[in-house]
């Protein structure tokens, strides 16, 4: 039903007013909030002054948005949206479509916070008319333990699902969720932890999404039902998980000496590996504890099925690589928490992303390519310069080719140091001349092009490349070298 009791009905949007067009407008640089970038404290009186179609603000869950430009993009039509203009429209919004991700859609329209931000709105229980949709939304942050002070936690449920949301200010370094006891849910966020007791069991694993503004974990309920509020487990600080057991569920050759090893969670533990982070894989080999870091990859043109996918090079005299590549499907390996100091935040302004890798230094680039190509309106070109010895050493050569064929914004330049006579493309080692042929000298005067460069390979390769980039004028803010 609409807010007025009419059957919910989407209106036909004018041409050029699709969600994609809205996202494009959001990325155009236009000041949609109309505040010149400032985040304001807004009183109820000020909010009420913006209640016309030509100048409309609206408040949802304490956030005030300028919805003037969104008016013609609203799938429910301007008339419906205007019902929330100038007021705290949380209840209205929750009655119609509490599942709509307003924070993301209206990100660029944020005017600020309502000064009397009445959190009771978050406790509001939407009308029961939508029994098969979301039935209630309840904020539980008031009862959060000190160990978890800071982030707000909300939850909402439908008959079949329950979703828990932790609101963030930046991308977290560590997110682990565990459900080893059927009705207990533990969330670790960086070094803090909180536990919840659930009314009944959930199906594992959750659908986990992590962005810089929130962690959202959607669980399917084992039995469809409406639950009482999950209650927070007081004071009971759960021992931090230092190692996570994983089962090898895939092991296959990618080329003559690189293996793809798929690991899946053996327990009810879900975690997130930030892009550019690696995970320590642990082993006890002949009584000696060893650990090696590997960067999880994503498939380039198709999704890989395991929870964590590693590309591991086998070295005949490498104790660890021989051990891991000779494991069998079904074997357990222990991994540690993701580690790293990279952040996709470094690349937010980049229109041109250049990835320079050598050998298995290719691994972090897989997720970077995936991330960058998804930023359709922002990233104009992604170029991988991939150094190897010979053709047989190139990891996923045909997959890379497929991605190039399917994506005009993606390019790959292969450079071989020991090619055979049939190789007609670039050969050699990294040199300033070679870099110049792929990347321009640094300039911050071109408003249309901003380059960011990521480098990963053996230490000598990375050091040399960094020196050449510095010689080309690239400041630290415009490149990142993965090390170790
Ligand atoms: C507070 C006043 C609002 C009212 C009364 C309202 C009303 C409606 C109605 C009646 C629909 C109908 C169509 C349907 O889903 O079948 C709709 C759809 C929609 N509205 Fe709103 N809306 C409001 C605010 C907003 C805001 C602030 C946003 C954006 C952040 C938004 C985003 C959407 C989206 C994305 C849909 C399509 C939903 C879907 O397909 O499930 N609405 N709205």
What does this structure look like?
Its cofactor is FAD. This is Cytochrome-b5 reductase. GO terms for molecular function: cytochrome-b5 reductase activity, acting on NAD(P)H; heme binding; metal ion binding. The chain has 484 residues and is an alpha+beta fold. Helices cover 16% and strands 31% of the residues. It is built from ten helices and 26 strands. It has helices spanning 19-27, 44-48, 78-82, 90-96, 102-105, 319-325, 363-374, 397-406, 432-438, 459-471; strands at 40-42, 51-52, 55-60, 63-66, 110-114, 134-139, 152-158, 161-167, 175-178, 184-189, 192-197, 202-210, 214-221, 231-232, 244-253, 258-265, 269-272, 279-285, 288-294, 308-313, 332-335, 352-358, 381-388, 410-416, 451-456, 479-481. The strands form five sheets. Strands 19-18-21-15-16-20 form a six-stranded antiparallel β-sheet, covered by helices on one side. Helix 8 links the parallel strand 23 (381-388) and strand 24. The chain is globular and about 75 Å long. The termini are far apart. Mean pLDDT is 86; it is low at 1-8 and 117-148. The site of protoporphyrin IX containing FE has 21 residues, from helix 3, helix 4 and helix 5.
